[in-house]
Design goal:
Order of helices and strands: EHEHEHEHEHEHEHHEEEEEEEHHHE
Strand content: 15-25%
Strand order of the largest sheet: 12-11-7-10-9-8-15
Shape: globular
Structural class: alpha/beta
Number of helices: 11
Distance between the termini: 28 Å
Bound molecules: nicotinamide-adenine-dinucleotide
Radius of gyration: 20 Å
Number of strands: 15
Largest sheet: 7 strands, mixed
Helix content: 25-40%
Length: about 325
């Protein structure tokens, strides 16, 4: 396959490297407005460099990956779908619900294969837990506790264009709780504060520390704490308590000090290290999906559902009250399991 990559920053260069090692990929073409960085990535992975996004989309691609800054996704996705090029797009589809809904409808109408980058769905641990839950091994699901903490806060310009902590970071947790439990969120309450001093957070009206409570459609309660700075290192954890078992995913090692107080031991290397296998698997699954050999790892409709929860969480934080989720897009569509 000839595959194009738009945007070769942190995640785009990682995905481009994965593609360069794939036995399904024979040719790679990339584009990013940062010319020097693009040339450097291209020389490492033996890729061609396009003149512009239009040039890249016109060069006879079998598939394209959109890994540019969040605010650029919608236009690039629309252009790829217009040309019926199978597309993998990093989350989010767009930063607002109207544009996301319109685009999801357009993608579904056109029939162009499209996958959205929620990589935890391709992580071996979450996939194993989902199988256990679906087979009833946990029994009735009572409570889920989720934790997310970045090892270092993202740069100020990333924060400014990210849509805020719920749209950018918690959206992964909102997606994974749907994926694991098969339940929709029916109510959300969120609160937050700017505590870490991370650059760009207060200036963009965002928070860097947040707590979110979700009520799910079969009654399970999920609680998420989110941070842009975890002093223990990159920290993504989940505990799920059912009537038959309590299961966990994420760092559970503790190094107790002499008083018996535990220090959390997290993996080194941030999100790219923790989810390396998941990122590689999601690209492989995308290539298998567009070749007709696998199901879609994450549909645009699933990404819309996660965005709806993130938008409701942001609203709840601003009005300081719980927000009910309209069932239109979520429950009516059902969950792609
Ligand atoms: N799924 C995940 O776990 C995950 C992790 C990181 C980032 N992301 C998503 O991936 C996207 C990129 O994040 P990042 O951390 O790599 O950011 P980044 O800032 O490191 O890279 C973004 C790149 O996009 C380029 N760019 C800007 N406009 C462009 C355009 N019109 N066409 C092509 N390239 C363009 C920038 O020059 C930059 O090199 C974001 O939308 C983010 O939400 C997802």
């Amino acid at each position: 396959m000839h595959v194009g990559v738009l945007g070769v920053g942190r995640i785009g260069s990682f995905h481009a490297t994965t593609l360069s090692r794939s036995r399904h990929v024979t040719q790679l073409t990339i584009w990013d407005p940062r010319i020097e960085a693009t040339d450097s990535v291209a020389s490492k992975i033996d890729a061609q460099v396009a003149e512009s996004p239009d040039d890249l989309l016109e060069c006879g691609l079998d598939a394209v990956l959109i890994c540019s800054s969040s605010a650029t996704h919608a236009d690039l996705l629309e252009a790829a779908v217009d040309k019926q090029i199978p597309v993998f797009c990093e989350k989010p589809i767009a930063l607002d619900l109207d544009r996301t809904r319109r685009l999801v409808e357009e993608i579904e109408r056109s029939g162009t294969p499209a996958t959205i980058g929620f990589q935890r769905r391709s992580d071996p641990a979450y996939r194993a837990l989902r199988t256990e839950i679906a087979s009833g091994q946990l029994g009735t699901l009572y409570l889920a506790r989720l934790v997310v903490g970045d090892d270092t806060p993202p740069p100020a310009d990333y924060v400014a264009g990210s849509g805020g902590i719920h749209l950018d970071q918690s959206v992964h947790d909102f997606d994974i709780i749907r994926f694991l439990t098969g339940q929709e969120a029916v109510e959300v309450y969120a609160t937050g504060a700017a505590l870490t001093g991370a650059p760009g957070v207060e200036d963009s009206g965002d928070v860097d520390s947040a707590a979110t409570v979700l009520t799910l459609s079969r009654g399970t309660i999920a609680v998420l704490t989110s941070s842009r700075h975890s002093s223990a290192g990159y920290d993504v954890r989940l505990e799920i308590a059912g009537s038959k078992a309590v299961r966990t995913v994420g760092p559970i090692d503790r190094r107790d000090d002499s008083s018996g107080v535990g220090n959390l031991a997290t993996p080194q290397g941030g999100f790219l290290a923790r989810f390396e296998a998941a990122y590689r698997a999601e690209i492989d699954r995308f290539l298998q999906f567009i070749s007709g050999n696998d199901t879609n790892p994450c549909t645009p409709a699933d990404a819309l559902c996660a965005l709806e929860i993130a938008v409701a969480a942001t609203e709840s934080r601003h009005i300081n009250r719980p927000v009910r989720l309209a069932p239109s897009a979520t429950i009516a569509r059902g969950i792609q399991l």
